[in-house]
Design goal:
The chain has two helices and 16 strands. It is mainly β.
Length: 253
Amino acid sequence: MSNFVINPYLFVASDIYPDSFGSDGNIAETNCTINTSTKILGSGSLSFNGSSAYGDLGGSASDYGFLTQGFSLSLWLYPTEIAHKDVIFDNMDAEPSGNSGFYCRFNVASNKILSTISNGTTYTAVETSDVWTEDEWQLLTITYDGSTLTVYRNTVSVASVSATSNTNTPSFTPRLGWTADGNDNKYTGLIDDMVLFNNRVITSGEMSSLYNSGSGELVSTVFPPGDRSGLKAYYNMDSIDSNVVINNAIPTS
């Protein structure tokens, strides 16, 4: 009988990220921590201290061109202290000044969220009608279909504006909790279960499932196998390993 060795790597999926960045898409965090007592799903949430904590999404700036063309972003937000220009998500900066991309942040003292898309010369901004409360989990969902940017709070549309899509390369890779260029204020609070889609608008039914009457539902349940087109990244925010928050993007099947 001849001897042979089975190569175990033949049975390992080569890429579990269904719409990869050309990298793993992990978040490189700085001074964030995991809060295991206050979370919406799983075993923890990502905590931002408002002074030195932020996280950079992996990949290159060109990987995020879809943020000015068509996308969906959904995450659970638990602000513990809201102040002017506290940044939630940004790959442009809070003052466009020739930069291309998208950002959302708290605006003035109103506890409303301002969302902006810029092509580098002109930008379109919209502020939510709802105020966002401290010390409470709220589902923030932002969708852009290439012509309309819509912001939802707990499945209810609270802002909408016409915005022309563009193919300009974004100025930065996205950053959570601070502006991409390092200006303006850092976010204070928690973020949990964040999902990002390229060129896919989350439906009202999917949004309702993600919200699930305020208790949340797993992304892997809301988007079952065979229905994960456009998935760029999913972060369950349950752990930090060597200053990295893993992209838990789920296989397509």
